[in-house]
Every structure is written in C-alpha cells, then in structure tokens.
Amino acid sequence: MNQRRRILGIDPGSRLTGFGILDFDGDTPAYVSSGTVKSIDGGFADRLRQIFEAVGGIMHEFSPDIVAIESVFMHKNASSALKLGHARSAALCATFEHDVEVFEYAPREIKQAVVGTGSATKEQVQHMVVSILKLDGTPAPDAADALAAALCHGNQHRVHAQLGTGKRIAGLR
Q: Is position 70 annotated as part of the catalytic site?
C-alpha cells in the first residue's frame, strides 16, 4: 500500500538555514522545492525572527505532512552550538501551528542514509542528492543537506513503520 506524504527537510543554521521539500509516493521521492533562508542582517534576535518567519512561510506555501530536521551536534565551541540550537528552535517553532509530525536525525545518520558513510563531505551529499532525485542542477550545500534530511526520513519511514519505532520529537504532534 503506497502512502503519499510531503516531507520538509530542514538544515538549521544561524546564518544559513537550508530547506528541501520532497513528495514521497510510497518509497519514491519527487523533488518539489529547495533553497536557503539567509539570516545575515541585524542582531541575533533579528536573525532568529527571519528564520521563524521564513520557515512559517514555507509551511504555509507547501503544507508538508512531516518535518525532518537535523539535530544539534557539538561544535568546536559552546557558543556556536548554542547559536545553532537557537536557530533550530526558531525553525521548529514555525512548524507548531501546523498539524505535522516532527522527526530529528543526527548529521551522521543523514549522511549515512544518503551517501553510505556518516563522514561524507558536503560535496558528496550534494552529488548523491542530485543523483537520487535526478536534478538538473546542484542545490546549494545547505539546501542539499535539507533535501538529504527529507530523503533520510523517507527512507527511514519504511523501517520505522515495520518496527514501530521512530525518532519523533517528544511533545510535537
């Protein structure tokens, strides 16, 4: 039985937040849209507002059923990790008014699902996203990472459905 679903992948960042939207018909992905939210102007709170508003606009325009977001990983310093966490939260909060399930995946897990190795480079992720989705052009690195998050969930969905497991973020949906 095929299940149609639209997945919004998000690669959060305090200056560049990637998004990618895929439609899945069963296990088959189809590219819908992708891009990068640039939040480089103003103070940090202004940049978080830009992320929140942009992701909210994406939610309204494309009406995804599911959100797959990259989890926070430890940066070289705590300040960078905190900023990434704030950007991720701004993106997540923009999904709350919509009736969607939100799942999170570690960066290594996303790379493993799309490239076959958790230590893949951004270029390798871009290459595999283009190959899997049969795209005419190469998306920006952050958009490719977001598309990879959506692909990861689309691929994991089948496994989680069979096992009755998942990485849904507690309290959402």
A: yes
| pTM, rounded to two decimals | 0.90
Domain range enclosing 116: 4-163
11 is catalytic: yes
114 within some domain: yes
Please, what is the average pLDDT of the chain? 89
Please indicate, yes or no, if residue 172 is contained in any of the structural domains.
Answer: no
Q: Which of 23, 101, 104, 142 is catalytic?
A: 142
Query: Is 142 a catalytic site residue?
Result: yes
56 falls within a domain: yes
66-123 tens-digit pLDDT? 999 999 776 678 888 889 999 999 999 999 999 899 999 999 999 999 999 999 999 9
Of 23, 70, 104, 145, the active-site residue reads: 70
Cβ atoms within 10 A of the Cβ of 10, count? 30
Q: Own/partner pairs for 129-137, CB < 8 Å, 24+ apart?
A: 132/29, 133/22, 133/29, 133/30, 133/31, 135/31
Q: What is the CATH number of the domain that holds 154?
A: 3.30.420.10
